Amino acid sequence: MARSSQTDAAVLGGLSVQPMSGYALREAIRDVLGHFWSESFGQIYPTLTALEREGFVERSEGDRAGSSTFHITPAGRRRLRELLSQPIQGVPPRNGLLLRLFFGRTLGAEACRELLRDARADAERKLAELDRLLAENAAETGPDAPFMRMTILAGRRSAEAGVAWADECLNLLEELS
Hints:
- This is PadR family transcriptional regulator.
- It contains eight helices and two strands.
- The protein has helices spanning about 5-15, 20-30, 40-55, 75-85, 95-100, 105, 110-140, 145-175; strands at about 55-60, 70.
- Helix 1 (about 5-15) packs across helix 3 (about 40-55), helix 1 (about 5-15) packs across helix 4 (about 75-85) and helix 7 (about 110-140) runs antiparallel to helix 8 (about 145-175).
- The mean pLDDT is about 90.
């Protein structure tokens, strides 16, 4: 799926949960999907405009001047299903931490230790945030709740693995000393 199609899927998917303003959609993508998906905020409004032009979303004017709420249309739901049915397109990984560790001999063991301590702390912060999301999700009863829980659990497992990996690497650096 091309990058623009993935943006379409994220926007249509967000609106399939509930109608939202462009601002609320932007916040939902950041706050709700953010543990596994990022989207350029500069793409959301042009995507909403294009999806409206194609008949996949409809706009209703809000109470405030300039505020609009977007609703997914039946055609938009069909398009979302079509987009989500396409094969997943992998992206080449770019991990600055691993790049630095790979060349760790040049960077130095102490700098690598610091990077790993920071990575471990980040993973622990992610675990705490994901635990908070799991607690919120446990109170949800809507039809999307089990599917949202799956993504939270995936993020949690990745964060747990990040903590374990950082510990293992820190131990490896200690053995080198």
